[in-house]
Amino acid sequence: MSKFPDLARAALLGVMIAATPVDAGEFGLGRAATSDEIAAWNLDVSPDGRGLPAGAGSVLDGEELFADACAACHGDFAEGVGNWPKLAGGQGTLDQERPQKTVGSYWPYLSTVWDYINRSMPYGDAQTLTPDEVYALVAYILYSNDLVDEEFVLTRENLPGVEMPNRDGFIVDDRAQVEYPGLSQAPCMDDCKEPVAITKHVVVRALNP
Q1: pTM for this structure?
Q2: Using CA atoms, how far apart are residues 15 and 18, in angstroms rounded to an integer?
Q3: What are the tens digits of pLDDT across the range 65-123?
Q4: Which of 8, 124, 182, 191 lies at a 20 to 30 A Cα distance from 147?
Q5: Under 8 Å CB-to-CB from 155, ≥6 apart: which residues?
């Protein structure tokens, strides 16, 4: 008989023993996270600026950094390369058949741009940028969307005041008020809805799942 199951159980037991501190709580596993561990995960940034670190970055600095770290995928002017995402352009296309959802045309808050770059970019080398570099890259993306001039410097203080063009293009999630109360009622069992009929067909069939 193979000894691997016994080895697996022994390894699992060793992990459980190693993960069981004296004050583990009712389940006997794990421990309370330290403040340093919490800080390492607490990277989120809010639209009002909460969570932003101190720093600043100019459009000109961002242009140089973008060329080195981002242009291979996103193009020199954030116009996108091949199937890689376009970050600039697309204004006025959201009501068209094929909208272009870029930072300038779609994203409602600039804090989301900062947060995403800080967490996930550059591709394959995430979280290697300094706060100043992230500010500079976001400033250059704003410039590529004609939202600021080339002299603009983005900082922790002025980022929350930058209003994105599609800021009011989203609706509030009101499901808790509109839908959830109906879920607590007794379910309908007979004659619950009007007859269903097909009234239209998709024109662009490539959009079908």
Answers
A1: 0.72
A2: 5
A3: 999 999 999 999 999 999 999 999 999 999 999 999 999 999 999 999 999 999 999 99
A4: 124
A5: 55, 56, 135
